[in-house]
């Protein structure tokens, strides 16, 4: 699959979200929208009304990463707010089949993600249910953390599983993505690169996207 870049809204200026997104929109492939509940992760980001208000300002695919204990309760509202995909944590939903079904009923694409200590084997049985497999490369909750190098081996294992089942699921990586870590993750088999700090906190976000793009080009 071609490499794609999704900026993470978490690192944008929350007082100027639409402007920050518009600046990079022509250069990127989707927008990563991090929702944190203050329970599953020790941080609170933003919720439905922020997504709803941003929606008319962008045509990007809204890839919603739900760091929440009760994410599925809100699927209908995420759809109404304008989300295109919901990605939930396997740590919250050890049997995600009914949750995938619930998302699809709402017309949402569905993804599963796993934290750094969670074995890849936890998601393997459900690989056919997902559009997106997000391999976290930091402990979720905060932007600006260092990429965990052991993630590369995990990406390679997920790549092998997806390819052996001849599936089209995206393999996404999120956390500490810079041109350097993105290049290594691309070699390991990642398709979608989520970057917050490296894009929105860069002096020139447009140049930052170009640098990431150059790093992951095949
Ligand atoms: C972390 C979030 C990430 C975060 C990445 O919990 O899931 O999407 O925004 O931020 P950076 O790119 O700064 O590591
Ligand atoms: Zn995320």
Report on the architecture of this protein:
With about 220 residues, the protein is of the alpha/beta class. The protein has a single domain, classed as Aldolase class I (TIM Barrel). Helix content is about 35%, strand content about 20%. It contains eight helices and eight strands. An eight-stranded parallel beta sheet has the order 1-8-7-6-5-4-3-2. β3, α3 and β4 form a beta-alpha-beta unit. α6 runs parallel beside α8. The longest helix has 14 residues. The protein is globular. The mean pLDDT is about 100. The structure holds D-xylitol-5-phosphate and zinc ion (ZN). The site of D-xylitol-5-phosphate has 22 residues, from β2, β8 and α7.
What is the element string, with H for helices and E for strands?
Answer: EHEHEHEHEEHEHEHH
Shape: globular
Q: The CATH topology, please?
A: TIM Barrel
Approximately what portion of the residues adopt beta-strand conformation? 15-25%
The oligomerization state is single chain
Largest sheet: 8 strands, parallel
Strand order of the largest sheet: 1-8-7-6-5-4-3-2
Tally the structural domains: 1
Contiguous uncertain segments of 5+ residues? none
Broad CATH class = Alpha Beta
Second rung of CATH, namely the architecture: Alpha-Beta Barrel
- Average pLDDT, all residues: 98
Helix content: 25-40%
- What is the count of β-strands? 8
Q: Report Rg.
A: 16 Å
**What's the end-to-end separation, in Å?**
10 Å
Bound molecules: D-xylitol-5-phosphate, zinc ion
State the helix count.
Answer: 8
Please name the fourth-level CATH homologous superfamily.
Aldolase class I
């Amino acid at each position: 699959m071609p490499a794609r870049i999704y900026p993470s809204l978490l690192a944008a200026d929350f007082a100027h979200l639409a402007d920050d997104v518009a600046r990079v929109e022509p250069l990127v492939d989707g927008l990563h929208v991090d929702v944190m509940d203050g329970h599953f992760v020790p941080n609170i980001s933003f919720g439905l009304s922020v997504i709803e208000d941003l929606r008319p300002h962008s045509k990007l695919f809204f890839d919603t990463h739900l760091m929440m204990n009760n994410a599925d309760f809100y699927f209908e509202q995420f759809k109404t707010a304008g989300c295109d995909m919901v990605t939930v944590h396997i740590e919250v939903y050890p049997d995600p089949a009914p949750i995938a079904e619930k998302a699809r009923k709402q017309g949402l694409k569905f993804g599963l993600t796993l934290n750094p200590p969670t074995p890849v084997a936890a998601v393997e049985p459900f690989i056919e249910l997902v559009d997106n497999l997000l391999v976290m490369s930091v402990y979720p909750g905060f932007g600006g953390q260092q990429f965990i190098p052991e993630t590369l081996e995990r990406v390679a294992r997920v790549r092998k599983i997806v390819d052996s089942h001849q599936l089209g699921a995206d393999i996404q990586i999120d956390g500490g993505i810079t041109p350097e870590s993105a290049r290594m993750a691309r070699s390991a088999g990642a398709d979608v690169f989520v970057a917050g700090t490296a894009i929105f906190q860069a002096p020139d976000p447009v140049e930052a996207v170009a640098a990431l793009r150059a790093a992951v080009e095949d």
